[in-house]
């Protein structure tokens, strides 16, 4: 019992404050080492860092991309002024923790990240100059020429400052200060955590979308609101601009006029579209839109945009079933859950082609829907979804799950900005308010607010309020889907139907999660996490059966399904394609055939490439490698490969031998890659790797994330020095003797001793002994304890 409970608690890597380590200034850009990388990473360079126009739905000619090498520094939180000397160069817009940034460092809550660059500007009296940020995580202060331009809070949405009065002709300085506490703060952070594991991933601090300057007239168009109405053959348009000005709006299709209208700015205009060509995933027709701002009959400003004529609704089919309708016809939303992470760029795709590849790949698999999971992508991702033809269920980025003070207003502000930013994309058909019970509150109020804010789309008020794992219901709730357009169930691994509530469509918001690891295409070779695991050869049959059950559920009224997931992400290896986007685990043509009964009209398929998975049993490959080792191959590259397979095959002894042979050949100072390898292959306190981890803990945490070394050390100490003394619940271990064996390991030894003893006494219900130990544990290490563990201990202390 103790071992089982402890293992679940110790597996959660926890946070420690890292001291600031001075770094020699970098003279040139170099991508940092990473376990695997995508094919596009090699195309990234300071002079071509995401050069594409960042806002396709409101495009002007006069703009300047500021992506490239900036100065960066990491300082203590107490620093109020920009550093006199920076630590080196960072490639914008790749987040600090990513390999493509050229830095690859973790930002802790007690630190601040600073950026600096200079830009040449030529001013004109007839123009304003706007400084745009696609997204910066999380709280950003901006100075231009030492004058405050503004502050923005929120890590997922765009923001701009009018810097006309702050700039001069010639060289201008831009400085940012960024605070990003990730999951330790009050703001929405999505899947980013400071201690990534299982379904949570590496943070993306700082600038992670394009930074750019835009020249606009003194009186200019600030925004567009475009809402199609196919029943009235109309595009409803609002042009936001200075009061009292007029606008001219003209639509065209393939270069031919499709309608125009003139009217006042800031008022609703109805642009008639004769015989509209409807937008669907199979035929994603997009109209071009020209918007002109007029003053005294002359053009004061002009922007280019686009739109799609489509309608999403819930209605009854011919059998009286409430279903999702696209363009007034039942349309099964066959989807997959996309996290939007990259091994080399984390939140930021290496190139625009890479960004588009993900949507092309999902389409080539035969899906018609993507649920964008608690992340907001750059505008160009939605442009590609619009252009290629993909329905999007857009999640709101969930609030901090514990809802600390300030979390609710931060979440609601992020929701407002998200909807305002994405509202014109025809691909987005559903807003998803909450995911499971992740920070859920005021569901009815927020669902109804969302429906009032955007009545043109469906609202999924709570995806997975009913959550089944292995057919056991984990979270039943009354009034689960109040005011929403659909009922939504999560069921792992096998599909199930959602609740039937009249007037609401039924959807399966998540299912599947079949873990299949592909050797040499893994971020973390210690993990092949999935809700269930299969070998590559068995995946096709299992996946086919799941989709056959979807067909049965569709006949019973199911309107949509979301499979987890299209791509592996870090330690979560349950994607249909590997994290580096190199290997598809079921061939594309086979996936399309599996999906065809529920998505018969796929349209033209994109031309993409990925290797088909090798269906050889990995244990057979490992057996061959083990014999090669026995026969004398001790080269470093071979030893690393063999250790990876050994870990996956569960042969810890052989992994340890390979590690020891490797480190006989590799001497300190160790590279980050060496340290990751030590973390991978070390399975005992007796291994050479354990001594390396203990003596290089700080470097490991810098390379892999906060407290990774501490948790590894604690797990091994528990395994070798504590667990043998507690073979069963009724054992009476000599805790004093255990403490003496742990003393040499400092804080890690003390923490694991107090945690293990606390849980042992808790399970034994020895309250008299439990109270002083638990109090000492919480006072020293409670900040690193998981919320559920801490609450359980505190509840017992209170009683």
TrEMBL record:
<dbReference type="GO" id="GO:0004553">
    <property type="term" value="F:hydrolase activity, hydrolyzing O-glycosyl compounds"/>
</dbReference>
<keyword id="KW-0326">Glycosidase</keyword>
<dbReference type="InterPro" id="IPR017853">
    <property type="entry name" value="GH"/>
</dbReference>
<dbReference type="InterPro" id="IPR008979">
    <property type="entry name" value="Galactose-bd-like_sf"/>
</dbReference>
<dbReference type="InterPro" id="IPR013783">
    <property type="entry name" value="Ig-like_fold"/>
</dbReference>
<dbReference type="Pfam" id="PF02836">
    <property type="entry name" value="Glyco_hydro_2_C"/>
</dbReference>
<dbReference type="InterPro" id="IPR051913">
    <property type="entry name" value="GH2_Domain-Containing"/>
</dbReference>
<dbReference type="Pfam" id="PF02837">
    <property type="entry name" value="Glyco_hydro_2_N"/>
</dbReference>
<feature type="domain" description="Glycoside hydrolase family 2 catalytic">
    <location>
        <begin position="353"/>
        <end position="464"/>
    </location>
</feature>
<keyword id="KW-0378">Hydrolase</keyword>
<dbReference type="Pfam" id="PF00703">
    <property type="entry name" value="Glyco_hydro_2"/>
</dbReference>
<feature type="domain" description="Glycoside hydrolase family 2 immunoglobulin-like beta-sandwich">
    <location>
        <begin position="220"/>
        <end position="310"/>
    </location>
</feature>
<comment type="similarity">
    <text>Belongs to the glycosyl hydrolase 2 family.</text>
</comment>
<dbReference type="InterPro" id="IPR006103">
    <property type="entry name" value="Glyco_hydro_2_cat"/>
</dbReference>
<dbReference type="InterPro" id="IPR036156">
    <property type="entry name" value="Beta-gal/glucu_dom_sf"/>
</dbReference>
<protein>
    <submittedName>
        <fullName>Glycosyl hydrolases family 2</fullName>
    </submittedName>
</protein>
<dbReference type="InterPro" id="IPR006102">
    <property type="entry name" value="Ig-like_GH2"/>
</dbReference>
<dbReference type="GO" id="GO:0005975">
    <property type="term" value="P:carbohydrate metabolic process"/>
</dbReference>
<dbReference type="InterPro" id="IPR006104">
    <property type="entry name" value="Glyco_hydro_2_N"/>
</dbReference>
<feature type="domain" description="Glycosyl hydrolases family 2 sugar binding">
    <location>
        <begin position="109"/>
        <end position="184"/>
    </location>
</feature>
């Amino acid at each position: 019992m103790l071992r089982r409970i402890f293992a679940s608690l110790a597996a959660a890597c926890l946070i420690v404050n890292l001291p600031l380590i001075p770094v020699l200034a970098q003279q040139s850009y170099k991508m940092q080492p990473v376990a695997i990388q995508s094919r596009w990473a090699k195309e990234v360079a300071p002079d071509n860092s995401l050069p594409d126009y960042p806002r396709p739905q409101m495009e002007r000619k006069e703009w300047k991309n500021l992506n490239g090498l900036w100065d960066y520094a990491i300082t203590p939180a107490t620093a109020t002024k920009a550093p006199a000397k920076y630590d080196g160069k960072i490639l914008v817009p790749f987040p600090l923790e990513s390999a493509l940034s050229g830095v690859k460092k973790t930002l802790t809550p007690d630190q601040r990240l600073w950026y600096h660059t200079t830009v040449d500007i030529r001013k004109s009296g007839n123009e304003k100059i706007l400084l745009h940020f696609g997204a910066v995580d999380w709280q950003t202060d901006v100075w231009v020429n030492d004058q405050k331009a503004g502050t923005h809070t929120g890590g997922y949405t765009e923001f701009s400052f009018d810097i006309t009065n702050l700039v001069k002709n010639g060289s201008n300085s831009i400085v940012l200060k960024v605070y990003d506490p990730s999951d330790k703060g009050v703001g929405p952070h999505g899947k980013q955590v400071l201690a990534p594991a299982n379904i949570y991933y590496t943070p993306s601090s700082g600038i992670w979308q394009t930074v750019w300057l835009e020249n606009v007239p003194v009186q200019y168009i600030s925004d567009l609101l475009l809402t199609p109405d196919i029943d009235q053959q109309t595009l409803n348009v609002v042009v936001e601009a200075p009061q009292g000005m007029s606008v001219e709006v003209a639509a065209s299709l393939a270069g031919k006029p499709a309608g125009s209208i003139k009217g006042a700015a800031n008022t609703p205009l109805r642009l008639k579209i004769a015989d509209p060509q409807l937008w669907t995933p199979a035929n994603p027709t997009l109209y071009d839109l020209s918007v002109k701002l007029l003053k005294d009959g002359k053009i004061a400003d002009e922007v280019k945009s686009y739109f799609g004529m489509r309608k999403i609704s819930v209605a009854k089919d011919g059998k009286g079933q409430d279903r999702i309708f696209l363009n007034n016809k039942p349309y099964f939303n066959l989807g997959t859950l996309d996290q939007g992470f990259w091994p080399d760029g984390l939140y930021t795709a290496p190139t625009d082609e890479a960004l588009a590849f993900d949507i092309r790949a999902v389409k080539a698999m035969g899906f018609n829907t993507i649920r964008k999971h608690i992340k907001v992508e750059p505008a160009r991702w939605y442009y590609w979804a619009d252009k290629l033809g993909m329905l999007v269920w857009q999640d709101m980025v969930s609030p901090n799950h514990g809802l600390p003070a300030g979390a609710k207003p931060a979440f609601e502000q992020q929701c407002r900005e998200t909807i305002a930013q994405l509202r014109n994309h025809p691909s987005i058909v559903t807003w998803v308010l909450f995911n499971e019970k992740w920070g859920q509150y005021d569901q009815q109020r927020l669902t109804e607010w969302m429906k009032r804010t955007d009545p043109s789309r469906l609202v999924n008020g709570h995806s997975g309020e009913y959550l089944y794992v292995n057919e056991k219901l984990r979270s039943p709730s009354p009034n689960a889907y109040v005011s929403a357009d659909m009922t939504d169930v999560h069921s792992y691994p096998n599909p199930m139907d959602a609740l039937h509530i009249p007037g609401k469509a039924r959807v399966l918001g998540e299912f599947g999660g079949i873990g299949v690891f592909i050797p040499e295409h893994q971020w973390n070779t210690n993990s092949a996490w999935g809700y269930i695991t299969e070998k590559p050869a068995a995946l096709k049959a299992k996946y086919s059966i799941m989709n056959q059950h979807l067909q049965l559920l569709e006949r019973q009224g199911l309107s949509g399904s979301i499979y987890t997931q299209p791509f592996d992400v870090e330690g979560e290896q349950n994607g249909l394609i590997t994290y580096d986007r190199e290997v598809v685990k079921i061939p594309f043509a086979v996936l399309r055939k599996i999906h065809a009964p529920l998505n018969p009209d796929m349209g033209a398929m994109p031309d993409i490439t990925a290797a088909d998975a090798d269906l050889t049993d990995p244990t057979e490959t490992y057996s061959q490698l083990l014999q090669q080792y026995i026969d004398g191959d001790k080269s470093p590259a071979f030893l690393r490969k063999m250790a990876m397979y050994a870990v996956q095959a569960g042969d810890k002894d052989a992994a340890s031998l390979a590690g020891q042979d490797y480190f006989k050949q590799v001497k300190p100072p160790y590279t980050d890659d060496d340290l990751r390898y030590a973390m991978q292959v070390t399975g005992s306190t007796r291994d050479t790797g354990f001594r390396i981890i203990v003596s290089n803990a700080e470097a490991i945490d810098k390379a892999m994330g906060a407290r990774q070394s501490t948790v590894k050390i604690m797990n091994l100490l528990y395994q070798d020095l504590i667990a043998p003394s507690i073979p069963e619940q009724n054992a009476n271990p000599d805790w004093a003797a255990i403490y003496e064996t742990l003393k040499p390991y400092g804080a890690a030894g003390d923490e694991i001793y107090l945690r293990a003893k606390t849980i042992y006494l808790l399970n034994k219900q020895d309250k008299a002994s439990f109270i002083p130990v638990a109090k000492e544990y919480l006072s020293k290490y409670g900040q690193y304890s998981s919320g559920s563990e801490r609450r359980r201990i505190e509840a017992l202390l209170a009683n």
